[in-house]
Fold:
Amino acid sequence: MAIDPSDILLTGRVAVVTGGGAGIGRGIAEGLAAFGASVAIWERNAETCASAAEAIGALGIVTDVRDGEQVDAALQRTTSELAIPSILVNNAGGVFTSPLLDTTENGWDALYKSNLRHVLLCTQRVARGLVAAGQPGSVINVTSIEGVRAAPGYAAYAAAKAGVINYTKTAALELATHRIRVNALAPDVTMTEGIMRVLPNGLSPDIGQMIPMGRPGHVDEMAAAAVFLASDMSSYVTGQTIHVDGGTHAAGGWYHNPQTGDYELGPG
Structure:
């Protein structure tokens, strides 16, 4: 069966993007809509939820996806106003510094709920609907490069993101027989509002040395990968984590020497 340009289109499908009010989530929501999907944004910030939904032409539902009852209500409304969602992007998340010796139980729980708990809640609810309807689907979990490398000062966040990667693999196997694919996207430095809050003084001038492609990523590049995973172009791809990171994960600690341009292990 030859591929066709129409295989990338999402026309007639309903997509849910959690945390779609800003940053990577909003970029993905825009990308899915541009390729024909009807998009529902589940976002706990009422202001960004409304502005993103209006700009994209999406259904905005103020939802805290860490709460199972709110997820149930959002899914019911999405299904009622659009249709059963066959695309789910678990993008919601949050981060704050949490050094190992200073991490409190409440801090650990907050980072777990923000970055991992909702992945179960949303995937489970959406998948149940698809299985009951006998429909295929695509789940896309947004994790991070911090899920596969050490992250000093961010141990709880990194542990949660590593959990997303493993959950992606396991969910992919459990849902494969139902024709529901589960994959993950792992960005590194991507220019978003959240990154600028974490790095209030801006990116290091050495960012070009750290990333093989020499620059931070853009939300549209994450969106492009999400469109691929949501579409029939990736019909035989499941259980995978795609690193949309300019080569950082592949580099494994190799950096560009700023004088020679050559690679060396560790910054020069």
User: Anything to note?
Assistant: The chain has a mean pLDDT of 93.
